[in-house]
Amino acid sequence: MPKNIRKGITIVLLIIWLVDCIKIKEIVLKMQKKQKVLTIILSIIAVAILVVCIIVGGKSFSANYDGKIIVEVVDIDGEVIKDKKIKFSEGDTLVGLLTDNFDNVLVTGEG
Questions:
Q1: For a surface tag, which of 2, 32, 86, 109 has the fewest beta carbons within 10 Å of its beta carbon?
Q2: Dihedral sign, CA of 45, 49, 54, 59?
Q3: 13 inside domain
Q4: pLDDT per residue over 58-108, tens digit each?
Q5: What pLDDT is recorded for position 72?
Q6: Mean pLDDT of the 35-55 span
Q7: Considering its fold, how many domains does the chain have in total?
């Protein structure tokens, strides 16, 4: 094959390769843009969930009726170390009950 034809084929192949590289670069850039958009959308969703959790967690849920809570502390073998029955009335909150009875359900390392 003559030298001129070889050079021509080489140049054509080089041009095809460069065009393919440009197409690949465009595809990668499009994927990066989509990834940025996805990241932004997921961040907005995460912030919305966080706000909802803060709002719901900040509300003080109270009991609708009288009853009792049984608090049991169980060791790794399944034995009950300490148990406590805490009575509550309508309007009491779980956080308030546990705070008021913290010393009664607290387990120390003694024994």
A1: 109
A2: positive
A3: yes
A4: 666 778 889 988 888 888 888 888 888 888 888 888 778 878 877 766 666
A5: 83
A6: 86
A7: 2
Whether residues 40 and 86 share a domain: the answer is no
Collapsed DSSP state (helix, strand, coil) of residue 71: strand
Q: Distance between CA 59 and CA 82 in Å, rounded?
A: 30
Helices (H) and strands (E) in the chain, counts: 3, 2
Question: Which residue in 53, 62, 47 sits closest to 95, CA to CA?
Answer: 62
Please say if the pLDDT value at position 111 is more than 60.
no
Domain range for residue 96? 67-104
Tell me: do 49 and 77 sit in the same domain: no
Q: Looking at the chain, how many residues does it have? A: 111
Of the candidates 96, 23, 7, 11, the residue with the CA atom closest to the CA atom of residue 60: 96
The model's pTM is: 0.40
Report the candidate in 61, 70, 58 with the shortest Cα–Cα distance to residue 92.
61
By the 8 A CB rule, do 82 and 51 touch? no
